[in-house]
Design goal:
- The chain has about 325 residues and is an alpha/beta fold.
- The protein contains seven helices and 16 strands.
- Strands 5-4-6-7-3-10-13-14-15-16 form a ten-stranded mixed sheet. A two-stranded antiparallel ribbon has the order 1-2.
- The C terminus is likely disordered.
């Protein structure tokens, strides 16, 4: 449907007076990690195996629940069964394992975690088999049957869903992805949800240093299964790179729990800021943190649910690592076609 400017005059007036509507904060100050989650949009995440993709995204979901009260549906067979996923979410929420050990959460913390995760998270079991269309239909049916509103969905990884090729796809994965991811974007907008999809890297080179220590670099469009289609259809694109311990990065050896996160594409403009941001994983609490300019650990704020104290000063001088500002400006030689 074609619309004249006068048809959307009220919306334009709102934009003129209020400005671009940002997404919701994920807990970190904009100067630390400038990424927000906007309803009616999508985030696509990619990286090598064991680079921290699911771990980081699950933490973002917990932060969104703590700060904004959001509810989420997760389909993540590779993470494990629904029991495994609920256990991991409670570990990340409390910061202690959901198992009976001397260092696990106590009975009070266990009850708090169960109550919180029960309210905000809903998980498909790992035996579910469905297409993308069936997945989103299941979510809407679940909402109606339980009289609740889901704000985000997560598919992790994409290739666990069944492919429902249509004649117009001509049996080609790129055409199937173009059609299906377009439908995912439209579904997010129509239902005012944020759809996250985590996808695998298909073919990725390995880089080694002079000591033989290797790591997987950030994937380019051609490294993903389906290639550039992900970058064309995605609104927000986040890439993960995890250096091997001891790999020299700008003259400094990488730590065992270090991960670099690249915001490679941002739409709508203003909801995030492209760049590369360095994080570390606290292996005990399974929470991520950045470091400020004097080396202090900066965890995401979870308001009243936060049990890890935050540094009082707002470190405005924190700078991201150098990076291309926009994936769309990457030289043609990095494109798959």
């Amino acid at each position: 449907m074609i619309k004249k400017l006068s048809d959307v005059k009220q919306n334009l007036e709102t934009l003129y007076n209020v400005g671009i509507e940002l997404g919701k904060s994920v807990g970190w100050d904009w100067n630390i990690f400038p990424y927000t989650v906007k309803l009616g949009s999508t985030t696509y995440i990619a990286g090598a195996p064991a680079s921290g993709k699911s771990e980081f995204w699950f933490e973002i979901l917990i932060n969104l629940s703590c700060i904004h009260g959001w509810k989420h549906v997760i389909y993540s067979p590779e993470t494990g069964s629904h029991v495994d996923i609920y256990s991991e979410l409670m570990h990340k929420f409390i910061g202690k394992p959901y198992v009976k050990t001397p260092w696990s959460m106590n009975d009070s913390e266990k009850l708090t975690a169960e109550k919180f995760i029960e309210k905000h998270f809903f998980v498909f079991d790992d035996q579910s088999e469905m297409t993308a269309s069936e997945f989103y239909d299941h979510v809407e049916t679940f909402e109606k049957e339980n009289n609740i509103t889901i704000q985000t969905t997560t598919v992790d990884p994409w290739n666990e869903l069944k492919y429902d090729f249509k004649p117009e796809d001509l049996g080609r994965e790129d055409l199937f992805l173009s059609r299906t991811l377009g439908e995912v974007r439209k579904k997010a907008k129509a239902t005012n949800k944020h759809h996250c999809i985590i996808t695998h890297v298909r073919d990725q080179k390995i880089e080694k240093n002079k000591d033989g220590v290797y790591h997987y670099p950030f994937p380019t469009a051609r490294d993903l299964a389906g290639g550039q289609t992900w970058f064309r259809k995605g609104m927000s694109i986040i890439l993960f790179q995890r250096y091997a311990e001891g790999f020299m990065v700008d003259g400094v050896p990488a730590e065992k729990n270090e991960v670099h996160i690249k915001i490679a594409k941002t739409k709508p403009k203003g909801t995030s800021k492209n760049g590369i941001y360095k994080f570390f994983l606290n292996l005990r609490s399974y929470r991520y943190y950045a470091k400020d300019i004097v080396g202090r650990d900066i965890y995401a704020s979870r308001l009243e649910f936060d049990t890890i104290p935050q540094p009082i000063p707002q470190m405005q001088e924190f700078k991201p690592l150098p990076a291309n500002e926009d994936f769309d400006l990457t030289p043609i030689k990095d494109m798959p076609f």
